[in-house]
Structure formats: C-alpha cells, structure tokens
Specification:
Keywords: Transferase. The protein is an alpha+beta fold. The chain has helices spanning about 5-10, 25-35, 40-50, 90-100, 115-120, 160-170, 175-185, 220-230, 250-255; strands at about 15-20, 50-55, 60-70, 75-80, 105-110, 125-135, 150, 185-190, 195-205, 205-215, 235-240, 255-265, 280. The chain contains 9 helices and 13 strands. β10, α8 and β11 (about 235-240) form a beta-alpha-beta unit. Mean pLDDT is about 95; it is low at about 1-10.
Length: about 290
C-alpha cells in the first residue's frame, strides 16, 4: 500500500458537496484570489440561476464549480476555481468530473483559460474558438442613437426576445434572459416591424457588462453596443465578444482594452443557430 499523505492521515481530505448560500463568502474569496472581479451579488445571482459544487475542508471552501442548464439538451459550465495553495493535487479534475457526472446526458459548453485547456481536452472537450474580453474605464464620447429602430424593451416584448435569442444561440435560455432583463436594461432593435437584435446591460464586477448582444449583422451589433456605451461614460465597462465576428479592433478603438482571451469549448454537440442571427457578445464567460 502507498504511504498516506499528511491530509489523509489527519482525516482532512476535502469533500465535494452542493453549493449553498453559506458557501458564497468563501467562493467570493476564491474568485478574489484569482483576480476575478466578482461581487458577492454576482455570486448570488449566478447561484440563484444555476447549480454548484464546492470542495470544502471543514468550513473552508477551497474549490468551486457551477453549471446552468438550457432546455433539455445543454449546460454551460463556469466558475471552476481551486485555491492556489491546493492546486496540483487533482482537485480541479475532481470538481470537473463531479460536474460532468451531474450533467450527464447533456452537451456541455464552457470558456477555458490557458491553464485549464489541457484538463478539459483530456475530458473530451473540443475547441470552438477564441473569446476576447474587452474592458476599461469608458471615456470616449459616444452620441446616443436617435434613429428609429432602437428602443427600451417592454414586458410584452419578452416572448419575441426569447425567440430571437433561441435563433441566435440554438439554446433555450428563457430563465436566463428573464433574469438578466430583471437585473439590467434590455434594449432591442426593430426593422420593418420585427426584432433584429437585442442587448442587455447590467451591473457586474467593477462596473457594467454589456452583453448578451444578439443581432443579424455586425453593423447592427455595433449600433446596439453604442446605444449602451452612450449611457456609460465614466463607468467601468466590460464586453466579452466572439473573436470570429471581428469586433475586437473596433472595441479597442473605443478605448476598451483587449485582455484575458479564453477559448470556447464544447463536450458533445455545439448548438446550431436557427436563423440569420448570431450572438456577438456574451452575458458572461460562465453563462455564455
């Protein structure tokens, strides 16, 4: 038999258990250690919308993993963290394997940092493409868009927004979109009496996040983004965009610096959009 580690000898091996409200301050401390700008309110929102696991030793939270289910077929995973002092002991793999067991039968999406790529690839995840984070104190003067077609959404618009979001993502995200709309400001774009795009802006981290942004073309996505930036002068702004749509240079020209690229990955089938619309910016790297 192999020699027991000091932790095993002391009976202090960590346990994986379901994330509860009592774990959130510890989870917040983990994300702060990683330099992620989550607030406690962001953890509360994420946990209310999804499911989570924690790795704890006694009362100490040393790791987290979360997922959000979309319809009957897909889940999006995120907030997979292990404290620096415990890394290199297989705890990240333990959390991921527990998450995959809990989501068995679903296709799983996630955004991977460079450090996590090898683990995810060993578990069967495939690369989809880069996601680029842009952020900064927004100080560029942007006039508001006074043209027809962009307006604040009304409660009666939500069913059409849900349809448009499903067409843009190939996913059933009704609970997520409803929750984001309650938390933030939902703006839509119309043309010829139909919705051709929408954006949600909400408080997050150091300031505000602009996303999701769904539209039928890049120019419409830019107009929707500008409609939000015109109200955020002097605020800290974050936008996460799919690199394939080519918005990064434009966002940098507006003063939003390109930082922290990640890789979109999928284990199973990538969802397929149902129409001409695309998702240009994410609600978050965790939610997709």
């Amino acid at each position: 038999m192999g020699r027991k580690t000091e932790q095993e000898a002391n009976g202090s091996e960590p346990n994986v258990t379901a994330l509860e409200a009592r774990h959130l301050p510890g989870a917040l401390a983990l994300s702060q250690e990683m330099g992620w700008p989550y607030r406690l309110e962001d953890w509360e929102f994420a946990s209310a919308m999804g499911h989570g696991l924690v790795l704890e030793r006694g009362a100490e939270v040393i790791g987290t993993a979360m997922w959000w289910t979309y319809g009957q077929t897909h889940a999006c995973a995120g907030m997979i963290i292990v404290t620096a002092a415990e890394q290199g002991r297989g705890y990240g793999a333990l959390l991921l394997d527990s998450l995959l067991q809990a989501t068995e039968g679903r296709d799983v999406l996630l955004s991977a940092t460079e450090e996590g790529l090898a683990l995810y690839e060993r578990r069967g995840f495939m690369k989809v493409g880069p996601i680029v984070q842009h952020q900064g104190l927004f100080e560029t003067a942007v006039p508001s868009d006074s043209s027809d077609g962009i307006r604040s959404a009304m409660p009666a618009d939500l069913p059409l927004i849900h349809t448009f979001d499903r067409q843009a993502t190939g996913l059933d995200r009704v609970p997520l979109v409803n929750a984001l709309a309650r938390e933030g400001r939902l703006t839509l774009m119309e043309r010829a009496g139909r919705i051709v795009g929408y954006v949600i802006t909400r408080r997050f981290g150091r300031g505000y996040v602009v996303g999701p942004v769904a539209a039928e073309c890049g120019d419409d996505a830019k107009r929707l983004i500008l409609s939000q930036l015109s109200t955020l002068h002097g605020k800290f702004v974050r936008i996460d965009v799919h690199a394939r749509h080519g918005l990064s240079d434009w966002l940098e020209s507006l003063g939003l610096t390109r930082v922290s690229p990640v890789t979109a990955m999928v284990k199973g089938r990538q969802p397929v959009p149902e129409g001409p619309a695309s998702m240009f910016a994410l609600a978050s790297q965790s939610f997709g």
